[in-house]
Amino acid sequence: MAGNSFLKGRESTMRNLKKIIPAFGLTALIALSGCGEAAEAPPTAGAEPEGLVLAADEAWARSAAEEYAAENPGVKIEIISCRTATELISALGRGEAVDMYLVQLDDPFTGDVTEEMWGLSADLKARFAELGTELVGGLEGAMEYGGELRLLPLDFTLYTFVSPLGEMPASLPEAEALAESAGTSLFAPYRDRENLTAWLLPYLIDSVSSGDTAQYRELARLLENHEGEMAPAEEGECLFDMRFLNASASFALPAYAEGCVFGIPGSDARAFYSPNLVFGIVSGSEKADAAWDFLKTFYDGYSPDGDAGAFPAVKAEFDRLIGERLGEGAPPEAAAAAAALAYEADAAAPGMSQGETLRESAELQALISAGE
Asked: Does pTM top 0.70 for this prediction?
C-alpha cells in the first residue's frame, strides 16, 4: 500500500505539558455516528463483499481504507467515527458492531481507559511476530503484559526528567540536598503531587513489580517535605524538570540539552514511552484474519506530519525522521538525546501496566498521596 497519508494533519494532544497532566482525564464523550458510504472495491462476480467495521477518525482512516479496498477486490470497510479510546469504549457499550480500531489512547497515565482497552482487545503478539516489523527500542516490550500484546502503537511521545547537572546524583536525598543548597525546588514546582506521582511511577516499575517499597516510600517522604513548593514558578527553577520529547523540529528539549542528565536518581530508567495512536482487533470479532490483513498496513511507510508531534513507532521510520529533522536544522545534541532515550527506554506510561502491576501502582499512588 502507498504511504499512509491518512495521518496528515491530525492534531496532537501532547503538544505541551499542561495538556497532558492533569488534563488527561476521560475525554468528553461525543455522539458517534456511521461515516456514510463505506470504502469498497468492486466484488468479484457472484461474490458478496466481505464487510469490516473500523472504529477510527475518518480524517485518519478514510484514505487508508479506500486504498486497501482498491487493492483488495471484494473488501468493504465501514468506518464508525471514534477518535479516542474513550469514544470506542462508549460505542461498544452501546452495542456498535466493531471489528478493529485505530484510536488515540487518551488516558495513558491513570490506566482506567487503558485497562478497558486491554480487556476488549485480542492478543496480537503472534500476528505481530509473523509480520517481522521492528519497533523502536524497548517499545514492543513496554506494550506487553503477561506475554500478550493487545494494543499496537502507531506512534509515541517520550517523557523524561531533565537536569542541567553534569552527573546524576547517587540518590534522591543527595539530589534533595543539592536543590536546597542551590535555593531551588527538586522537581518542577508547577505540578501538584498527584501529577508528579504519575510521572515518577514509570521510573519505579521494577520496585512496583517486586514489591520493594523502599524507593517509593522515600519519594513519599520527599513529596511530603516539598509539598509547599507545588506552586507556580518560573520555568527552570528546579533541579529536575519534567519534559516531553516529540517529533517537532526542536524535539522540545531545553537549551541546556547538551551535557544534561535524564531520569531521576536511584533509577536506571531515563525515559518512558507514552503511546499516542494505537490499533487493534476487538476480541470476539469473527473477521479477525481479514481485520489484521488491513491493520498491518498501518506499519507500511508511515509518514507522520511534522506538526503532529508524535514519533513513529517503527524503527526504520523513526530513524528516517531523526535524519530528516537534522537536515532541517534540529540541534544535533537534541536529536542525539531523543534517539538515545527512545532506544534505551523500556517502560511505558503507568496506565499501560495491566492487572496486578496496575493495582500495585494504584496502591503506590495512594501511599504517596497520603505521604506515608
From this structure: yes
